Each structure stands twice: as structure tokens, then as C-alpha cells.
Amino acid sequence: MGPRQFDLDRCVHCGLCLNACPTYRELGLEMDSPRGRIYQMVQVAEGAPITPSYIRHIDLCLACRGCESACPSGVPYGRMVEDARAEIEAHAQPGWLAKLWRRFVFGHLLESRTTMTAVGTLLYLYEASGVKTLVRAMGFLKLLGRLGELEQIAPSADPPFFFSQIGRTFPAEGRRQYRVAFLAGCIANVSFARLNEATVRVLQKNGCEVAIPGGQGCCGALHVHSGLREDARRLARRNIDAVLSGDAFDAIVSNAAGCGSTLKEYGELLEDDPEYAAKARKFSSLMRDVTEFLAAIELNPDMVPVNATVTYQDSCHLAHGQRIRTAPRKLLAAVPGLTFRAMPSSDVCCGSAGIYNVVQNAMAMQILAHKMESVNSTGAGIIATANPGCLLQLQAGVRLHGSGQRVMHVVEILDEAYRSRKGRGVSAP
């Protein structure tokens, strides 16, 4: 089933979405704009065949949802492109290699802690042994073609991985004011273990008892974006059971904007499931991005100055998917010593977009180059964002086009301010 007819009918073809679309900004092609893609979806809905050209235009979309913020008619473009990809997936006949790769990544890697740990260990050895530095210094990446291009955005890994913390509960510092469930993600447990630890510490500093439910796993965001909706529904049920089967929580927290956007849409994803529809709506009603949660409570002001200049890159799925723009900036403003400089076009995608920078690397790097022009114009020494995928993409941007800026999650900046109060000897959770 493709995009719903009532969604398709909501587009009035005004074109206000065009400048908000990264691919249209880069290519200037109508068929690679939201309006053009909707036109193609309408043709398919009316019986036109799913052609390679149609698939190419839909695949080139970042699903950043910038067009949703620009649209005066409330067209739910993110849902529509996901439905279009699900329809393509149902009709597609990929080659055996592509099929094997997708089965490994979506059906095994993202769901298996053992496999993720093994891959993370290899990534760690690649970096810790010095091979990564040597490969880059010697220019070998240019000889590897596409593989060398992908190496630029490969995540690092820093043991101990966060998997060992899943199933634990961490007490609040001082009087407990909230009890929250933290969803640690999948890849983040390997590539962003320190970010997850920082998130727990910052929540503890702000009166939260933090439970990390043991049965949790991948949220299914990458599956939804790739058209694998049934797999995403299965993962959603698993997370719902993991969180709602025990004691009550004041909030369910994620530090990944891309994941959080999908987690907040579990109610829609499972709306036709008689057993899980009500539970999914309850789950989604409790979901909060960590910046959203912290900005809504009385933030613990016991911080030391972080004497630096920072700019902020909006994560697409936080700004456009969850409509959260003020919260991260409010938190940054609360850090003493921090000087904020606004970034031009901060809500235009950096090119990360889930696995987009892997499957559409050339376009992602083109978008990133223009993003770094905006970043560099601020003169900031820290680039803050609120999504792990954006962190990876912007780190690659600093290596390729930057001036040595630090790339940090908003929560990591808060953690630095809190931890400096007692020194760096504070143990990780």
C-alpha cells in the first residue's frame, strides 16, 4: 500500500516546500523536490508503473521533513515518503547481494547485541591500532573508491560498550523528583557509549532515577525510513513491552532525535494492531527527547563555566519531525561561560539522514560541504547538535572542511559543565 489518498490530496502544489528541500537546493530539479515527488506518487497511485526513475527520485529524498515545516497545508510528507518506500519494497526485486546486505543490516546487525559488539570491537581495533590514522595519512582511501568515501563517515567505537548498562537502574542525585526510562538505541551502545553515559549522569544530576529497561532494542527508525514497516512494528512491540510491563515512568527519554521521532509515532505505526494500539499511544505520549525533557523541568544550575563559543545545528527529526527548536538552545543558554552564535540555515539537513550518507554518499557529501560553509561562518569552536547521526556527519565535515571544531551533543556540553564541578574523576554509570 502506497501513500494514502487523503494525504496526496492535501498538497496544493504551491511550491513553498522547494527551498526547504536539500536535494532541490542542490539539483534544482522539480522531480527531486517534495512537490515533484508527490506528483510522482499521485501517478503511481493512479496506476502508473513503479519505474527505476521513480525509485531513484524517492530514494534520493533524505526524508528530513524540512518541507513539513514549510508547508502551509500540513502535508505529512514524511509519512508519505515512508509509505512510498514500503510500496517500492513490496514490489522491488533487488539483486542477491543487495538482498543479502539488507538482511544482514536490518534483520541481524541492528537487532543483535552480540554482532554489534563484535563489529564495535573491530572498529575499535582499527582505530586504536593506528591503522585508521595510517590509512588516512597515506591517502589509501582514494584508492578504495566508494569504500574509501564511506570510511570518512564510519563511526568509531570506544569500549566499554553501553550494552552492559542495559537492565540497570541508576539513582537520582539528591532527592528523587522523576523516574524515567532511558532508551539507549542500538548502534549508539557501541559508537556513542560515552554519550549514553553522559545522558544518564545529566538526568541523575537533575533529580531523575534512570531505569534502562532490559528488554529494549532497536527502535525501528531505520527500518521505517527504508520501507520495512512490518519489521519496524515488530521492534516497536518489543520496546513497548520492555517499558510498559513494569513500574510506571514519568517519561521515556531518548538522546537520538531520529529515534525519538519514530518512537513518538509508535501510536500511528501500530494504529491497526488491536492488541498494541492503545499501548502504543500510551508509549508515544510518554516519549520525550532528552533536551525536551530537561528544558521543561527546573534545570540544576550547579555548573561551572564552559568558556567556549558554540553554534547549534538543528537535527531534522527534532526540528521538523518533533517540532522542537527552542529546548536545545535554552539548555545551551543555561551553561555559564558559553557564547552562542546562530548558524545560518541551521535547520537545513547536514546530509546524515539515517543511513542516507551511506546509500547516497555523493549527495550527502555535497550537502555537507554547503552545511560546513554555514558552520564555518559562525567562527564557533563547538558545533552542538542533538542526534548521533548528525554528530558523525558533522565530524566528517570538520575533517574535510572545518577548522578543528569539536562536535558535541547538547547533553555532552551539560555533562562537561556538571562534571567539572567535582573534577574528571567522576565514575561513569
Task: Summarize the topology.
Blueprint: H1 5-8, H2 22-27, H3 34-45, H4 52-59, H5 66-70, H6 77-91, H7 96-107, H8 113-128, H9 131-137, H10 146-151, E1 169-170, E2 178-182, H11 188-191, H12 193-205, E3 208-211, H13 221-225, H14 229-244, E4 251-254, H15 257-263, H16 266-269, H17 277-286, E5 287-289, H18 290-296, E6 308-312, H19 316-321, H20 326-334, E7 338-340, H21 356-359, H22 361-378, E8 382-385, H23 388-401, E9 406-409, H24 410-419
Parallel strand pairs: 2-3, 2-4, 4-5, 6-7, 6-8, 8-9
Antiparallel strand pairs: 1-3
Describe the fold and architecture.
With 429 residues, this protein is an alpha/beta fold. Among the domains are: 5-91, Alpha-helical ferredoxin (Fumarate Reductase Iron-sulfur Protein, Chain B, domain 2, Orthogonal Bundle); 301-419, Rossmann fold, CATH 3.40.50.10700. It is 51% helix and 8% strand. The chain contains 24 helices and nine strands. It has helices at 5-8, 22-27, 34-45, 52-59, 66-70, 77-91, 96-107, 113-128, 131-137, 146-151, 188-191, 193-205, 221-225, 229-244, 257-263, 266-269, 277-286, 290-296, 316-321, 326-334, 356-359, 361-378, 388-401, 410-419; strands at residues 169-170, 178-182, 208-211, 251-254, 287-289, 308-312, 338-340, 382-385, 406-409.
